[in-house]
Specification:
The chain has 4 helices and 11 strands. The protein is of the alpha/beta class. The strands form 3 sheets. Strands 1, 2, 5, 6, 7, 8 and 11 form a 7-stranded mixed β-sheet that branches. The radius of gyration is 15 Å and the shape is globular. Keywords: Flavoprotein, Oxidoreductase.
């Protein structure tokens, strides 16, 4: 089965991207190694969560929301991404293989997949992340069909910022897929 988009990474950036992609009715798969930085965080400065939130609770809530909107979520470490049949094949460490038309990388500080794909890098703005994947305003990388969001793409390492960047990149991808600028607004019922 081929997905429209495979999101690699299920933290704030990847989870937020998956929410937007699934809500736009793109067949969305999240491949998450369940080891991201957010899983080790306590967050006091996330908008709307006045009492703070644990990183695991934030990630789990994002996963539930993405799944409720139709995204599929698999736990596993992606070890290889190859171009295949007009899209991409993604292999995870246990040997399972998935196919997607496009890939959105949201791997935080982990650069190995981006390096293996020979993506273009640029200088990062934060001392902890001196090198990041070069992206345009919508998150396109130097490789057609590969998008990047969050810390990997130079967003500041705060969950509220990486979540917003994941949503921004998802909107760019959706807009390109639909051939027009995508806007998602719901109203109270």
């Amino acid at each position: 089965m081929q997905f429209d988009v495979a999101v690699v990474g299920g933290g704030a950036a990847g989870g937020s991207a998956a929410i937007f992609l699934a809500k736009a009715e793109l067949k969305t798969l999240v491949l998450d190694n369940d080891k991201g930085q957010t899983r080790r965080a306590w967050i006091e400065n996330h908008y709307g969560l006045a009492g703070g939130v644990s990183g695991p609770d934030l990630v789990d809530a994002g996963q539930r929301q993405a799944q409720r909107l139709g995204a599929e979520w698999e736990i596993g470490q992606v070890v290889e991404i190859t171009r295949e049949d007009g899209g991409f094949a993604l292999k995870i460490e246990d040997g399972r293989r998935f196919e997607a038309k496009q890939v959105l990388l949201a791997t935080g500080a982990a650069m190995s997949l981006a390096e293996a794909l020979n993506l273009e890098f640029t200088d990062g703005r934060e001392t902890r992340y001196p090198r990041v994947v070069k992206v345009d305003l919508d998150g396109r990388t130097s490789e057609p069909g590969i998008w990047a969001a969050g810390i990997l793409a130079g967003a500041s390492a705060h969950t509220i910022i990486t979540a917003g960047h994941g949503a921004q990149v998802a909107v760019g991808l959706i807009s390109e897929t639909q051939g027009k600028r995508h806007v998602q607004h719901d109203a109270l019922k």
